[in-house]
Amino acid sequence: MHTDLLPQPQEPIFIEKLDDSMTRAALSPDECDQVRKARRRRIWGFVGWFFLFLFVGFFLWGMVAALVGMAVMKFIPEEYLITISQFAIVIVLGLVLWATVNRLLARLRPFNRDLAEGQKEIKRMRISDKFASNVQVTSSGWRVTSRRGQYYYVVINDRNYGIDYEIYQKISKTQPVAIHFAPRSKVVLKIEF
């Protein structure tokens, strides 16, 4: 058998220059864990919002179903009401389950592609601002006020990144930085100052 006709495995791309400010490199095992952790946070956030929506949706749907049922009961014989209502419940629950699974898979696809490709992008930028605040901005956008102390941030490309106090003291505005992130999910893996 001729081995030169078989496709040869390609070496992974360790560093590839994309343009002047961006390069591509292989993900380290720790960075893969960071992407997996972000994926788990996305799953649990989705599950929490889904159950909240499910609770409110069933409450509202039950009210509407009761009102429609009272209006329809005049026109449909009683022996068919249970069968029709069971059929409607199965159809609605099936559609909700199908839409939910598709939405969850679509939200996880960027994380899975990043892990499958095993690549990260390193973009070189400049710090546009730095500030300290007693308000913590979480990744989901919630703002939490703290009485205990300060939170330190740098603004890079109109986005806030939390940093340690030691780094906050050392850096200056307009200092160049390198941001390591997963290209599809946009998970920030590391910021080099």
Description:
The protein is α+β, with helices and mostly antiparallel strands and 193 residues long. It has a domain at 15-127 and 175-192. The chain is built from three helices and ten strands, in the order E-E-H-H-E-E-E-E-E-E-H-E-E. The chain has helices spanning 29-72, 78-117, 165-170; strands spanning 15-17, 22-26, 119-126, 129-133, 135-137, 143-145, 151-156, 159-163, 176-181, 188-192. A five-stranded antiparallel β-sheet has the order 1-2-3-9-10. Strands 4-7-8 form a three-stranded antiparallel β-sheet. It has a two-stranded antiparallel ribbon with strand order 5-6. Helix 1 runs antiparallel to helix 2. The protein is elongated and about 80 Å long. It starts with 14 loop residues before the first strand and ends with a strand. Mean pLDDT is 80; it is low at 1-16. Keywords: Membrane, Transmembrane, Transmembrane helix. The chain crosses the membrane at residues 46-68, 80-101.
Bin the helical content: 40-55%
The biggest sheet, with number of strands, parallel, antiparallel or mixed sense and barrel status, is: 5 strands, antiparallel
Count of discrete alpha- or pi-helical segments spanning 4 or more residues: 3
Secondary structure: number of strands: 10
How far do the termini sit from each other? 53 Å
Oligomer: single chain
Summing up helix and strand content along with how strands pair, one would put the structural category as alpha+beta
Major β-sheet strand ordering: 1-2-3-9-10
Report the average pLDDT across residues.
80
Give unreliable regions as ranges: 1-16
The share of residues in extended strands comes to 25-35%
Order of helices and strands: EEHHEEEEEEHEE
Radius of gyration, whole Å: 26 Å
Shape: elongated
Transmembrane segments: 46-68, 80-101
Keywords: Membrane, Transmembrane, Transmembrane helix
